Amino acid sequence: MLVIVKENYDEMSKEAAKIVASRLRRKPNLVLGLATGSTPVGLYKELIRMHKEEGLDFSKVVTFNLDEYIGLPPQHDQSYRYFMDVNLFNHINIEKRYIHVPNGMADDIEAHCEWYEEQIKKFGGIDLQILGIGANGHIAFNEPGSSLGSRTRIKTLTQQTIKDNARFFKSIEEVPKYAITMGIGTIMEAKEIILLASGKNKADAVKAAVEGPITAMCPASIIQMHRKAFVIVDKEAASKLSQEFTG
User: Fold this and answer.
1) What is the pLDDT of residues 190-218, one digit of tens each?
2) Hey, what domains does the chain have and what are their CATH numbers?
3) Which residues are catalytic?
4) Does residue 246 carry a pLDDT above 80?
5) Nearest in space to 186 (alpha carbons), one of 141, 217, 145
6) pLDDT tens-digit map of 72-119
7) Rounded to whole angstroms, how far apart are CA atoms 143 and 149?
């Protein structure tokens, strides 16, 4: 695990984009795992810039997103497919047939989860997985207490997550109660991982993930076991680390 501390959010995002771009130039048909939320938006903006100004080619890239709400169609403005279209896919030359986002409207969600796992295997596994981290140490919708060996599955959202996400909806009653999420075991099979964190509100989670014990109560702590993980954070998110790290 390599911890990289950058001065601010923009520098953190650019550092992550450099790694993604280098892997893509080395392997044009890169299998890329993607995350939603505010943290990776800067990374996606930099990748879009690289595509438009430097010719970074996404035409052979295959993507797999971490999660999706159950019950929201892809066109819903709070679905994660919509988020990815607006923040990345609509601005690069990616083939739509190579985009994979869990289908929250599937008739048989459990069968869909199995299919999703099979698709990842079909494309040779995820080469590089982008992750964010929740203030409680969760990754994707794997909340504290999730099995460290879990696979893609249905998860019931915690009341705290529902409250946190209510700001994006007209009312808390509209927030979905269930989601499809990649499991921790699935995430850990990625050949490389980039975990991003920004801001003081993530400092405790970053410290627990990087320096704390490996425990299901901080799902992100499992990345300590990964053979090639980058933890890229800004100074505020790194403020509680006991060791000195440099960018």
Assistant:
1) 999 999 999 999 999 999 999 999 999 99
2) 2-234 (3.40.50.1360)
3) 67, 136, 138, 143
4) no
5) 141
6) 999 999 999 999 999 999 999 999 999 999 999 999 999 999 999 999
7) 13
